[in-house]
# Entry
Amino acid sequence: MYKKHTDEELIELLEQGKDKAFDELYFRYRDLLVRFVYVRMKSIPIAEEIVQEVFTTIWERRKVLVIQKKFSAYIYTSVRYVTLDYIKAHTITDQYIREVAGNNIVTSNSNNTIESIYHDELQEAVDKATSLLPKKAKEVFVLSRFKQYTNKEIAEELNISLETVKYHISYALKFMRSYLGEFN
# Structure
Protein backbone atom coordinates (compact mmCIF):
# COMPACT_ATOMS: atom_id res chain seq x y z
CA MET A 1 0.00 0.00 0.00
CA TYR A 2 2.80 2.45 0.88
CA LYS A 3 5.59 1.00 -1.27
CA LYS A 4 5.07 3.58 -4.04
CA HIS A 5 5.26 6.56 -1.70
CA THR A 6 8.42 8.63 -1.42
CA ASP A 7 10.21 8.86 1.91
CA GLU A 8 8.97 12.41 2.36
CA GLU A 9 5.35 11.34 1.77
CA LEU A 10 5.81 8.54 4.29
CA ILE A 11 7.10 11.02 6.88
CA GLU A 12 3.98 13.18 6.36
CA LEU A 13 1.78 10.11 6.76
CA LEU A 14 3.73 9.12 9.87
CA GLU A 15 3.11 12.54 11.40
CA GLN A 16 -0.61 11.96 10.76
CA GLY A 17 -0.44 8.76 12.81
CA LYS A 18 -0.25 6.21 9.98
CA ASP A 19 1.81 3.45 11.57
CA LYS A 20 2.01 1.52 8.28
CA ALA A 21 4.06 4.43 6.90
CA PHE A 22 6.56 3.84 9.70
CA ASP A 23 6.63 0.13 8.88
CA GLU A 24 7.44 0.93 5.25
CA LEU A 25 10.31 3.26 6.24
CA TYR A 26 11.60 0.65 8.65
CA PHE A 27 11.60 -2.18 6.10
CA ARG A 28 12.99 0.11 3.42
CA TYR A 29 16.07 1.09 5.46
CA ARG A 30 16.63 -1.49 8.20
CA ASP A 31 18.90 -3.94 6.38
CA LEU A 32 20.90 -1.17 4.71
CA LEU A 33 21.47 0.54 8.05
CA VAL A 34 22.43 -2.68 9.84
CA ARG A 35 25.08 -3.29 7.17
CA PHE A 36 26.21 0.34 7.47
CA VAL A 37 26.71 -0.02 11.24
CA TYR A 38 28.17 -3.53 10.96
CA VAL A 39 31.06 -2.17 8.88
CA ARG A 40 32.05 -0.04 11.86
CA MET A 41 31.10 -2.30 14.77
CA LYS A 42 31.80 -5.80 13.38
CA SER A 43 28.85 -7.15 15.36
CA ILE A 44 25.40 -7.90 13.96
CA PRO A 45 23.65 -7.78 17.38
CA ILE A 46 25.18 -4.37 18.15
CA ALA A 47 24.35 -3.08 14.66
CA GLU A 48 20.75 -4.24 15.05
CA GLU A 49 20.54 -2.67 18.50
CA ILE A 50 21.75 0.71 17.20
CA VAL A 51 19.38 0.70 14.22
CA GLN A 52 16.49 -0.31 16.47
CA GLU A 53 17.31 2.55 18.84
CA VAL A 54 17.21 5.08 15.98
CA PHE A 55 13.88 3.79 14.69
CA THR A 56 12.45 3.73 18.21
CA THR A 57 13.39 7.40 18.59
CA ILE A 58 11.75 8.23 15.25
CA TRP A 59 8.58 6.42 16.35
CA GLU A 60 8.52 8.18 19.73
CA ARG A 61 9.04 11.60 18.11
CA ARG A 62 6.86 10.99 15.04
CA LYS A 63 4.43 13.84 15.84
CA VAL A 64 7.17 16.44 16.31
CA LEU A 65 9.73 15.07 13.87
CA VAL A 66 11.31 17.78 11.72
CA ILE A 67 13.44 16.58 8.84
CA GLN A 68 14.93 19.43 6.84
CA LYS A 69 16.72 17.28 4.31
CA LYS A 70 16.09 13.95 2.61
CA PHE A 71 15.01 11.20 4.98
CA SER A 72 17.82 8.94 3.78
CA ALA A 73 20.42 11.55 4.76
CA TYR A 74 18.64 12.12 8.08
CA ILE A 75 18.49 8.42 8.99
CA TYR A 76 22.10 7.70 8.04
CA THR A 77 23.29 10.73 10.01
CA SER A 78 21.22 9.64 13.02
CA VAL A 79 22.60 6.11 12.87
CA ARG A 80 26.16 7.43 12.53
CA TYR A 81 25.79 9.62 15.65
CA VAL A 82 24.18 6.85 17.71
CA THR A 83 27.02 4.53 16.64
CA LEU A 84 29.62 7.09 17.74
CA ASP A 85 27.81 7.57 21.06
CA TYR A 86 27.73 3.80 21.53
CA ILE A 87 31.45 3.51 20.88
CA LYS A 88 32.22 6.37 23.26
CA ALA A 89 29.97 5.01 26.01
CA HIS A 90 31.42 1.51 25.84
CA THR A 91 35.10 2.30 25.34
CA ILE A 92 35.74 3.04 29.01
CA THR A 93 33.99 -0.10 30.23
CA ASP A 94 35.79 -2.23 27.64
CA GLN A 95 39.13 -0.83 28.78
CA TYR A 96 38.36 -1.70 32.39
CA ILE A 97 37.20 -5.19 31.43
CA ARG A 98 40.40 -5.78 29.46
CA GLU A 99 42.57 -4.42 32.25
CA VAL A 100 40.92 -6.43 34.99
CA ALA A 101 40.50 -9.59 32.91
CA GLY A 102 44.11 -9.37 31.78
CA ASN A 103 45.31 -8.31 35.22
CA ASN A 104 47.00 -5.31 33.61
CA ILE A 105 46.22 -2.85 36.39
CA VAL A 106 49.33 -2.18 38.39
CA THR A 107 48.74 -0.95 41.89
CA SER A 108 51.52 1.03 43.44
CA ASN A 109 52.57 0.90 47.07
CA SER A 110 51.59 4.53 47.48
CA ASN A 111 48.52 5.38 49.49
CA ASN A 112 46.13 4.96 46.61
CA THR A 113 43.43 3.30 48.67
CA ILE A 114 40.51 4.48 46.55
CA GLU A 115 41.98 3.00 43.37
CA SER A 116 42.76 -0.22 45.20
CA ILE A 117 39.21 -0.52 46.55
CA TYR A 118 37.79 0.32 43.12
CA HIS A 119 40.05 -2.28 41.49
CA ASP A 120 39.00 -4.94 44.00
CA GLU A 121 35.31 -4.16 43.52
CA LEU A 122 35.72 -4.22 39.77
CA GLN A 123 37.64 -7.50 39.87
CA GLU A 124 34.89 -9.02 42.01
CA ALA A 125 32.19 -7.73 39.62
CA VAL A 126 34.06 -9.08 36.57
CA ASP A 127 34.43 -12.47 38.26
CA LYS A 128 30.72 -12.51 39.14
CA ALA A 129 29.68 -11.44 35.62
CA THR A 130 31.95 -14.09 34.11
CA SER A 131 30.35 -16.77 36.28
CA LEU A 132 26.89 -15.70 35.03
CA LEU A 133 27.76 -16.14 31.35
CA PRO A 134 26.33 -19.15 29.49
CA LYS A 135 28.75 -22.09 29.49
CA LYS A 136 30.16 -21.74 25.95
CA ALA A 137 30.37 -17.93 26.11
CA LYS A 138 32.17 -18.24 29.45
CA GLU A 139 34.67 -20.74 28.03
CA VAL A 140 35.41 -18.51 25.04
CA PHE A 141 35.64 -15.35 27.17
CA VAL A 142 38.01 -16.95 29.70
CA LEU A 143 40.28 -18.26 26.95
CA SER A 144 40.24 -14.91 25.17
CA ARG A 145 40.55 -12.46 28.03
CA PHE A 146 42.17 -14.39 30.88
CA LYS A 147 44.40 -16.81 28.98
CA GLN A 148 45.09 -14.49 26.04
CA TYR A 149 44.26 -17.08 23.34
CA THR A 150 43.73 -15.81 19.80
CA ASN A 151 40.34 -16.38 18.19
CA LYS A 152 41.90 -19.05 15.97
CA GLU A 153 43.40 -20.86 18.98
CA ILE A 154 40.04 -20.75 20.76
CA ALA A 155 38.27 -22.18 17.71
CA GLU A 156 40.77 -25.04 17.53
CA GLU A 157 40.73 -25.68 21.29
CA LEU A 158 36.92 -25.84 21.53
CA ASN A 159 36.39 -27.31 18.07
CA ILE A 160 34.06 -24.50 16.95
CA SER A 161 34.11 -22.10 14.00
CA LEU A 162 35.88 -18.75 14.05
CA GLU A 163 32.51 -17.01 13.57
CA THR A 164 31.15 -18.79 16.65
CA VAL A 165 34.14 -17.59 18.66
CA LYS A 166 33.52 -14.01 17.50
CA TYR A 167 29.85 -14.32 18.36
CA HIS A 168 30.57 -15.56 21.89
CA ILE A 169 33.15 -12.83 22.52
CA SER A 170 30.73 -10.18 21.26
CA TYR A 171 27.95 -11.63 23.44
CA ALA A 172 30.19 -11.82 26.51
CA LEU A 173 31.45 -8.25 26.10
CA LYS A 174 27.91 -6.94 25.64
CA PHE A 175 26.82 -8.83 28.76
CA MET A 176 29.84 -7.53 30.70
CA ARG A 177 29.15 -3.93 29.62
CA SER A 178 25.57 -4.26 30.79
CA TYR A 179 26.46 -5.99 34.05
CA LEU A 180 29.33 -3.58 34.81
CA GLY A 181 27.37 -0.47 33.89
CA GLU A 182 27.84 1.04 37.36
CA PHE A 183 31.60 1.18 36.77
CA ASN A 184 31.25 3.54 33.76
Remarks:
- The CA atoms of residues 7 and 71 lie 6 Å apart.
- Confidence is low (pLDDT under 50) at residues 104-111.
- The first helix runs from residue 7 to 15.
- DSSP finds eight helices and no strands in the chain.
